Amino acid sequence: MKRPSIIAIALLALSLPVSAQLYVQAGLGYAMSLGGVQLDRDRIESTTGVESFTYKYGSYGQGFELAGAVGYTVTPSVALELGICYNLGPSYEAKEVRQNPAQNRERTHTASLFSLVPSIVVKGTAWGMNPYARFGVVVGFPSAKMEEVRPNEVITSTYSGNQFFGFHGACGVAFPMSKELVFFGEFTIQGGSWSPTKLEERVGATVTTITLKDEFTDAEQFVAEQPSLPFGSAGVRAGVRLAL
After folding, report:
1. 64 lies in a domain?
2. Which of 42, 85, 101, 219 is most buried, judged by most C-beta within 10 A?
């Protein structure tokens, strides 16, 4: 190939618009329980011995969220993102009232989730706005705890071990304020459950470690059935995006 042709191709390549662009974004949101299960129940015994029950349903994916992401615009319609999210988690309360003998118990369930969210974003342009949809997976590092307060003691049960794997989806609208700055609002959805592998029960200064399994024999000690804790949610977020 002749040198003028090489120069012409190079000049043409330099004159083409660069569609790839790096950006960062940060937002705040709130997620509501989705796909919840029974987490606990209130048990109230009257003075005549009649018991009533109120069941508590929910998901550990509920709560305020702090979210951020680094993105790479591959084409005007497609971007790749690596998101991070910290869900502060819910607080569910249950109580027992017993009359004979008189004994009350109160339980509080809490959880949190730190997650990485690799995803793909498909976006468009309409009426000066940029509607978009995001599809991804969630790799999370959750924790959950239950505290039961009894008349003479407090029992704290802490779940740990294993990761959370789920899916993530979102649809929203971005409002360009300038070439570099964008405000956005979106609806989000997350699905999946967590199966912890370890349970620590603390009663005063005594700590008992229990291994959680799907299958075990009666001869095994300090082993219990592995639970499946739901982390599904549906929520809203708003934030800002800055092109670098």
Report:
1. yes
2. 85
Question: What global pTM score does this model have?
Answer: 0.84
**Cβ-contact 140, 111 below 8 angstroms:** no
β-bridge mates for residue 99, sequence order: 102
| 127 φ/ψ angles, rounded to the nearest 5 degrees | 55, 40
| Structural domains counted in the chain | 1
Residues near 123 by beta carbon (within 8 Å), at least 6 away in sequence: 76, 77, 78, 79, 130, 131, 132, 133, 174
Domain assignment present for residue 115? The answer is: yes
95 Cβ neighbours under 8 A, 6+ residues apart: 42, 43, 44, 104, 105, 106, 107
Query: Which among 95, 90, 104 is positioned nearest to 40, based on CA atoms?
Result: 95
Judging by DSSP bridges, how do beta strands 130-149 and 102-123 pair with one another?
antiparallel
Residue 61 lies in a domain: yes
Domain interval for residue 127: 19-146+163-192+233-243
3-state secondary structure 105-135: EEEEEEEEEEEEEEEEEEECCECCEEEEEEE
pLDDT digits (tens, 9 = 90+) for 111-132: 999 999 999 999 999 888 999 9
- What average pLDDT does range 229-243 have in this prediction? 96
Per residue in 3-52, pLDDT tens? 444 444 344 434 434 445 999 999 999 999 998 888 899 999 888 878 89
Cα dist from 128 to 131, 149, 176, 183, whole Å: 10, 56, 8, 13
CATH for 178: 2.40.160.20
